[in-house]
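Q: Structure tokens for this one, please.
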Amino acid sequence: MKTLRVTLAGAGAFGLKHLDAIRVIDGVEVVSLVGRELGKTREVAQRHGIAHATTELADSLALKEIDAVILCTPTPMHAAQAQACLAAGKHVQVEIPLADSLADAEAVAALQRRTGLVAMCGHTRRFNPSHQWVHRRIAAGEFALQQMDVQTYFFRRSNINALGQPRSWTDHLLWHHAAHTVDLFAWQAGGEIVAAHALQGPVHPVLGIAMDMSIQLKSSSGALCTLSLSFNNDGPLGSFFRYIGDSGTYLARYDDLFDGKETPIDVSRVDVSMNGIELQDREFFAAIREGREPNAGVASVLPCYRVLAALQAQLG
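A: Here is the predicted structure, written as tokens:
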């Protein structure tokens, strides 16, 4: 098996998760690391045995041995960097979101079609064993989704990342965190989203973004979704999913799953790992080796970004 040689761009909170995941995947080696500050990037590269460290993605793309790139960079850079990778002949996985505008998302998808390379977006919820378990029940005709109720809650009243470190860019409830649920709902409901409505709270005077948001969706299947998002929540943090269907209720909390009476459901045999990021990366590398479209390929997630754009238009 030929070793796939990979660039990881972005050595922050999620970049480190990908480095940990790739370490347990056979036949894959990270050989170049791209970061914002050269000193810190070199330190991370040394800890993970990565020979090449740089602050410029172009330096890494110029390396002939690179087969693929994983982008864990700030959201505003995703679309342009994904296109740069494809233009350089490299397969690319972009951490969610693919872009922060529909036009940019469509531009990435168009370039992927022209190049025929693998281009995938990190819609991790498709890979979490808890959500995979529910999806398989739906596919088998054992569970028909009627409603999803989702809470995505953080306490981020200043510009920090998941590790509590200062960010050089501003996160967004709609274009990042809502993207997870909009895509997951469409994937689980099995139809197109035919109605979408959004409300947002006051805009933060410094960050310039709404800190609270409420979204309602309806699928062509008839299923409903209610999504509440907040950066103001000083309580249990994370995303919590309630699936209500014709034959049961399920509660998904990241990689754990419970029935409606809080009885744990064993999802340890759903896939080869309980780590959603690892499963996401495994799919990316498998699609490259097999020359096929990956689950969460840019074409398959594009409808999500059409819905986000429609919601953005409502919010003004």
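A few notes: The first strand starts at residue 4 and ends at 9. Residues 258 and 265 are 5 Å apart (CA to CA).
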